[in-house]
Amino acid sequence: MNPQQNEVRRLLEKEGASLVLQKEGKPPRIDYQSGLLPLWQAYQEEDWAGGALADRVIGRGAAFLVVAMELNSVYSLLMSSGAREVLVKANIDHGWGRMVNRIKDRSGKGICPMEALLEGIEDPEKAVEKLQEFFAGKISG
Predict the structure, then answer these.
(1) CA atoms of 102 and 116, how far apart (whole Å)
(2) Residue 138: per-residue pLDDT
(3) How is the chain split into domains, by residue range?
(4) What is the mean pLDDT of each run of 10 residues along the chain (141 residues)?
(5) CA 138 to chain centre
(6) In angstroms, rounded to a whole number, what is the distance separating the alpha carbons of residues 61 and 39?
(7) Pick from 84, 88, 81, 97: nearest CA to 13
(8) Could you give the residue ranges of the DSSP H alpha helices within the chain?
């Protein structure tokens, strides 16, 4: 684990946050909301290229956003194997506490909606387009 990854992991655990983004020269962005929306908002609002992310859960949706954000490092308490594949393909340094085959929905009985939405998509740009459509409908509706 690199020093940048260690620092965001430490902040995530210390703050009890759901997400910590950090980039040299900027104060860390710490969020407590669950789901992919906080990471999506960070992607939309600021440039985090070269930064590091620690998140409680990283599935394929979050992994594709990490690629689009051009982050250097990621740590997750819970990561899906599909997310790991995306990160490996993009050559992004990553670590995890627990690896699972797929992220489940909040009930624990089905697949996470973001995992289902991005099923079969391998291109990060296409994945971000799908997420844009999802969040545009969710926010306006």
Answers:
(1) 10
(2) 59
(3) 3-140
(4) 86 95 94 94 95 96 97 96 96 96 88 90 94 78 37
(5) 18
(6) 10
(7) 97
(8) 3-15, 37-45, 60-69, 81-89, 113-117, 124-140
Q: What gap in Å lies between CA 56 and CA 38, rounded to an integer?
A: 12
Give the homologous superfamily in CATH for domain 3-140: Hypothetical protein TM1506 (3.40.140.30)
* Separation CA 85–CA 65 (nearest Å): 14
Per-residue buried b or exposed e for 47-56, using 16+ beta carbons within 10 Å of the residue's own CB: ebeebbbbbe
User: What's the length of the chain?
Assistant: 141
Sheet hosting strand 93-100, strand order edge to edge: 29-31, 19-22, 52-58, 73-80, 93-100
Indicate the helix (H) or strand (E) that contains 22: strand 19-22
Tell me the angle at which helices 60-69 and 124-140 cross, rounded to the nearest 10 degrees.
Answer: 110
